[in-house]
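Sequence only, no structure available. Ideas?
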Amino acid sequence: MSSDFYRRQGQQHQQEIVRFQREKSRETDRIADLSRKINTASQAASRSTNISLAASKRQEAARYQEESARAQKKIADIEDKIAREQMRLNEAQKNATREDERESKNREREEQRRQREHEQRMRQISGKLQHHDALHRQTFSTIQKLAQLPERIVVLFLAANPLDQQQLRLDEEVRAIAEMIRKSQHRDAIKLESCWAVRPLDVLQAINEHSPRIIHFSGHGSDQDEIVFQDSSGQTKLVSLEAIVQTMAAASGDIGLVFFNTCYSRNQAEAVVQHVDTAIGMNTSIGDEAARVFAAQFYSAVGFGLSVKRAFEQAKAALMLENIPEENTPELFVADGLDADALALVRPA
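Reply:
I predicted one. C-alpha cells follow.
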C-alpha cells in the first residue's frame, strides 16, 4: 500500500473521531439537562405536601435518572469507539510514515540507479570517444608509417645446405617465393635477392651490400639454438644464437623482419626482436614442404600489402589448406610496444 492510501485511512478515522466527539458532546449536554430536571423534580417532591404530587415528582426524577444512566452508558460506548478510532488513526499514521520512509528509500535507490546508469553511459561514451581517438591516432600512425616505408624493399634470402647435412630443396623454396611475389599486387615494390652456400661472414657482407628490409634464413638449424652455415669446404659451420643476435643488432637499421625458416629457431626469433620489429621462428623441426608452402604464402601476403600479422596468419592457413599438419610450428614475435597487425612492410602503390 502507498503512503497516500494510509493517509486517506487516517483522514477517515479522524473524521469518525470528530463525529463521535460531537455525539459524546450531545450526550454530555443531555446528561447535564437531565441532572437539572432530576434536581428540579426531587426538590418539588420534597417540598410538596400533596402525597400524590410528591410521588409523581419522585417517579419523574427516577425516569430522568434512568435516561441519564442510558446516556452515560452511551457516552462510555462512544469513548470506546473514539479509543478504537484513535488506535486505527495511530496505526494509519505509523503505516503512512513507514511507507514514506520506504518510498523515500526507493526513490533514493532509483536515483542512485539512474545516477549509476548515467555514469555508466558517460563512461561508455567516454570509452567510445577514447577508442575513436585511439583509432584516429592509430590510423594517423599507420599512414605515417606507410609514408615512411620505402617504395621498394629487398628480401635477402640466405641459404646454406652443407654437404654433410640432409639435403634440402632450398632452390624450390626460393622459386616458390619468387613466383608468389611475382603474382602479388605490389610485386614491383619487392626485390628478392638470394645468396647461396652462405658462410658466416657472408651474412654481414650481404646485409651491407643489399640493405634488406627482410632477412630470410633458409636451411638447417640445431636444437641448441644454432644456425647451420657452411665452411670453405662446404661442411657444417654452426653459428650461435648470441652471434646471430649481435649480427642483427649491428645491422638493424632498416631491417623490419627476420624470418628463420630453419628448425628449432624459435629462441633465435624471440631474441632478435630486441633489435628488429618482428621475427618468425620455428618451435621444433619443420618439414621441407611445410617450410616452402609457409614462406611462399607469407611473401604473397606481404606483396599484397597486408600487415605482418595477417601475412603470418595466411601462411599458417596455407599449411592447413595443403593438409600439412605443421601450422603450429611457426611463431611470430614482435618488439615491445608494437602491434604486428598495424605493421606493414610494403607501401601500397
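The two ends are 75 Å apart (CA to CA).
Hope that gets you unstuck.
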